[in-house]
Amino acid sequence: MNITQFAESHNQNPKNVTMYIFRHKKLFEGHIKEVGKCKYLDDEAIRILEEHYPSISSTKTIENEELQKKYTKSLEQITILQNQLLQAQKQIGEFRSNQLLIENQKLQIKHSEDLIKKQKEDIEYLKQQCDNLQKRTLFDFLFRRRDEQMENTK
């Protein structure tokens, strides 16, 4: 139940209820959850507020017991749905966090693949250089013909 719903059900102005909560912060600490701009009251907060703002007798407003039961059941369902909404929002936050982690890991994998590709290219180049050095004869080595062969491979 949010503050506006409480105020309407107790025939009060929502601003008055909000001011009472603001003036008694210590009493309501940990008993009010904010979802967006809406503040939701737990059972303890409702009990504290009902001490200060007594509720309108439900027998006066709802004369038929069957309607009263439906009303109570509806309020319970609203509370359950609000709790489910809070859980769903928490799961959405966790899902978004996991998505960011996955994207980060994908970037790391791409970076690693690029490094591996570069290292393979370097290995191929070094192999080619080794092959060229092995092909040289003693005569080429002594008379520094290395430069000509190296220029041909480049």
Give a verbal description of the structure:
- By secondary structure, this protein is mostly helical.
- It has a domain at 1-56.
- It contains eight helices and two strands.
- The chain has a two-stranded antiparallel sheet with strand order 1-2.
- α1 crosses α2 and α6 packs antiparallel against α8.
Instruction: Give the helix tally.
Output: 8
Rg computed from alpha carbons, rounded to a whole number of angstroms: 38 Å
* Number of E-state strands: 2
The arrangement of helices and strands along the chain is HHHEEHHHHH
Strand order, largest beta sheet: 1-2
- End-to-end distance: 78 Å
- Overall SS class: mainly alpha
Low-confidence stretches: none
What attributes characterize this protein structure?
154 residues, mainly alpha
Describe what is shown at a glance.
This protein has helices at residues 3-9, 14-23, 25-28, 43-52, 58-61, 65-135, 138-142, 146-153, and strands at residues 32-35, 38-41.
Secondary-structure blueprint:
Elements: H1 3-9, H2 14-23, H3 25-28, E1 32-35, E2 38-41, H4 43-52, H5 58-61, H6 65-135, H7 138-142, H8 146-153
Antiparallel strand pairs: 1-2
